[in-house]
Structures are given as C-alpha cells and as structure tokens.
Amino acid sequence: METTKTTLVHYVVDARASRLTVHAFATGLLSAVGHNPTIGVRNFSGDVNFSPEAIQGSEFKMSIQANSLSVQDDIADKDRREIERLMNEQVLETAKYPEIVYEAPMLSITRMGESLYTTVLDGSLALHGVTRRQPVTARVAVFGTMLRASGDFILKQTDYEIKPISVAGGAIKLKDELKFSFEMVAREEE
C-alpha cells in the first residue's frame, strides 16, 4: 500500500496587505465623554506553515515591534500624540519590552468549504515581559499562492502585568479587556 506524503506550504505574512487592530473601551463615571481608542499595528512580520491535510507541523509565528502601535481614530493630533506617548512609556514600556511575539501550533483544521477552513491555535503570547497561553480561532482561505486568515480574540491587560490607563482621578479609564482583530494576508514563499 502506498502512502502519500503531505507537504506543508510555507507562507510569509504580507504586512502591507494585512491589518491588526486593538480595540480598547472606556469605563468610569465620565466614560460617556471618553474615547474608545482603536490602535493599529504598523510594524510586524510573520510566517505560516500550513497544510489542510496535516495538522502536524502546521503553525503560525508573528513578531510585532511594540513601538509601532498607533491611534487610528480621527482625533486631534495633540490627543493622538499623548495617547501614543502613554501607550509607549506607561502601558507597553516599549524601551524595556520592544517586541511582542506570538507562536502557535495549529491544534485543529476543519474544512468549511472549497479552500475555506477554521483553525484553532493554542499558542504563547509574549507581551510586556510575560508569556501566557493565548488560544485563537481563525477563519482561513487559501487562493493559489495566497493565504488569508481573519479572526479576533480578547485578552486582559492585567494578565500581562499591564495596568489599564486611568485619567481624571479614575473618572475615565480603559477597561482591562482589549479586543484584538486581524485580517492577515500571507504569500507562499518559493
């Protein structure tokens, strides 16, 4: 009996065609006048090894330059600069922790349709000097030499020893939970 060998395809994330955003939400007594910032990630790279027929060896790795996060909302430049300064100096402490890394094997790959899959990843996220387990479910589509993945997940800042920002004596602060959303495009490496 002949066995067929399944080949993993290596893809490289195309950062210019991809989008990674972080949504933060205001809380507190004056949260109605507060701002729910949307943060975009500008400088990141990643690799995907993927084969729908073989979970073994299928994996995803991503590296983010922590100081590349920027406010995406339409706000005054002065406010944008202040939020980004606080984010770099007090929240992420980017001088001390310059890189955010996610590495994950794929635990399951389920075919949803022609070239469409759902994958479950159970990886480790290294953020702010803390590494924790972070499961992620992604919808994946493969079109020729291009792979597209999308999804979202929630994480708590305090799990990574980050204290949520608070202003006006706590009357406006950010919730502990952040929502991460991603639309990744990766191209087959030859």
TrEMBL record:
Pfam families: YceI (PF04264). Residues 16-187 form the Lipid/polyisoprenoid-binding YceI-like domain. It comes from the Bacteria. This is YceI family protein. It comes from Tunturiibacter gelidiferens.
